Amino acid sequence: MNVAENLARLKPLAETDPIPDLAGRIARFRTASYPDLPDDYLAFLQANGHWMFFPDNQVDAGKRKVRVESLFGLDGSKRTLFTEFATYAERLPPGIIPIGDSGGGGDLICLDIQGLRPGTVLHWNHEREVDAAGERQPDFFNMVQLADSFSLLLDRVTLVAPPTGNLGIKRATLRF
Fold it and tell me: Domain boundaries in the chain?
């Protein structure tokens, strides 16, 4: 499926109003980060450009499932590609940009622009960011490949049913 078909399938929560000067914002981001964004990711930004929230999904990452909670945009939301790139530029390996949040309390969905395998999408585990000496190391040790491209990532996102019922809670007591 292409990006538009996948977004229709996944039904993210996002603004739909056009972003003023979206082309200019994309150009500024490319200047601030890396000019060579993959075509499929560039098409995604050009199609909407807004921050998007994806409820109840997962991507099979081998031994574990990874959630794609949100994808950063270029709008006026709190977490944009600009803010996240500035926040994580020194913490991620060179050539890697953060493009989304995996809902793991700091874990990120990243795109390899000029790193080991350009075009691939990676999961960055913030808890494995430090080495044995407790120093931050911007390397690939704490990253797992999710897909060979942004389009293939969206293809691999599987919708899952939200939890229902009492979630195993047998009794709750409220004390005031």
Answer: 3-159
Span 65-91, average pLDDT: 93
Instruction: Give the orientation angle of helix 3-10 with respect to helix 39-47, to 10 degrees.
Output: 50
Under the banding of pLDDT at 50, 70 and 90, the label for residue 176 is: very low
Predicted TM-score (pTM) above 0.85: yes
Fold of 3-159: SMI1/KNR4-like (3.40.1580)
Q: What is the 3-state secondary structure (H, E, C) of 39-60?
A: HHHHHHHHHCCCCEECCCEEEE
> Residue 107 phi/psi, 5° resolution?
-75, 150
The per-residue pLDDT for range 119-155, each reduced to its tens digit, is 999 999 887 776 656 677 777 878 999 999 999 999 9
Tokens encoding 128: 């494995």
**Cα→Cα distances 163→56, 57, 168, Å:** 9, 12, 11
Question: Whats the size of the chain, residue-wise?
Answer: 176
Q: Of the candidates 146, 149, 144, which has an alpha carbon nearest to the alpha carbon of residue 2?
A: 149
Strand runs labelled E in the chain: 52-53, 57-60, 65-66, 70-71, 96-101, 108-112, 121-124, 143-147, 158-159
